[in-house]
From TrEMBL:
Pfam entry (one): rhaM
Entry-linked SUPFAM superfamilies: Dimeric alpha+beta barrel (SSF54909)
Protein name: L-rhamnose mutarotase
PANTHER family linked to this entry: L-RHAMNOSE MUTAROTASE (PTHR34389:SF2)
TM segment ranges: none
InterPro entries: Dimeric_a/b-barrel, Rham/fucose_mutarotase
UniProt record, GO biological process: rhamnose catabolic process
Taxonomic source organism: Micromonospora coriariae
GO molecular function, one term: racemase and epimerase activity, acting on carbohydrates and derivatives
């Protein structure tokens, strides 16, 4: 299943508020994310406000589109927008630009195992 990683910038003056808002996310927002295909979703926040998001999903565009149809997402995004800086669009979820994955340990270990097994059996991968 594809992984998605992205960054956003939280206003450094509002970090404590931002953290507090995420200690108990609304149950209906949690349900909407899960039902829309956002899995293993985590946010990491650096002290200068750099926010790194990570999730796993079958189809990120479809997962984003599903959230756009959710009333709870519209309410959540409206409440969270003031915490972000440098948004080209009004809602943080619309400003997400996935980062290109350049290394994955598990993928390379798996490829190495396949190469080794092929060499041992005389097969070519």
């Amino acid at each position: 299943m594809p992984r998605v990683c992205f960054t956003l910038q939280v206003d450094p003056d509002r970090l404590d508020e931002y953290r507090a808002r995420h200690t108990r996310v609304w149950p209906e927002m949690l349900a909407a994310l899960a039902e829309s295909g956002w899995h293993d979703y985590s946010l990491f926040l650096r002290e200068d406000g750099l926010l790194v998001g990570y999730l796993v999903t079958d189809d990120f565009a479809a997962a984003q589109a599903a959230m756009q149809t959710s009333d709870v997402n519209a309410r959540w995004q409206a409440e969270m927008a003031p915490y972000f800086v440098g948004l080209d669009q009004g809602a943080a979820d619309q400003a997400i630009r996935p980062l290109a994955e350049v290394f994955n340990l598990e993928a390379q270990l798996s490829a190495e195992r396949e190469t080794r097994l092929a060499a041992e059996t005389g097969d070519t991968p």
